[in-house]
Amino acid sequence: MQNDPLAELTDYICPDCGGALSKRDGANGTQGDGQGEYQCRIGHTFTPAQLWIKTCAMRNRALGAAARAVAETVDLARALAAEARATGNEPLAARLESDAQSEERYIRLLLQMLEDLVADEPDTRP
């Protein structure tokens, strides 16, 4: 659709590959059902409903990855705090413990956000 004069480049990304999406209005769609469609450069094609569902799933995966990354940061901060304590660097250990506690709050916020979003998730049938 990238070289298609009937398609318009959007500001949206493909939830499958991250590429730019172009849009065709319903009159020019390939499905012949009058519904608009979105397509990326390599051919991933979505109806508006499919695009919304896949984009929500992409967002949820990103939030899950963020929660995991923050959890790993907590573990690292605690391990480094123990090392600092073992070498007598109590100021660094205290700072790292404080940072770990802050990061734990971020994990709770991310997980609560993800839980709320999943509860409100659109019907997964296109």
Mean pLDDT: 89
| Unreliable stretches | none
Strand proportion: 5-15%
Helix percent band: 40-55%
Please outline the helices and strands.
Elements (H helix, E strand, L loop, with lengths): L6 E7 L6 E5 L12 E4 L4 E2 L1 H39 L3 H30 L7
Antiparallel strand pairs: 1-2, 2-3, 3-4
Structural notes for this entry:
By secondary structure, the protein is an alpha+beta fold. The chain has 2 domains: 7-46, no CATH class; 54-119. Helix content is 55%, strand content 14%. The chain has helices at residues 48-86, 90-119, and strands spanning 7-13, 20-24, 37-40, 45-46. Strands 1-2-3-4 form a 4-stranded antiparallel beta sheet. The longest helix has 39 residues, at 48-86. It is elongated, with a radius of gyration of 22 Å. The mean pLDDT is 89.
Task: Give a quick summary of the entry.
The chain is of the alpha+beta class and 126 residues long.
What characteristics describe this protein?
2 helices, 2 domains, alpha+beta, 4 strands, 126 residues, elongated, 4-stranded antiparallel sheet
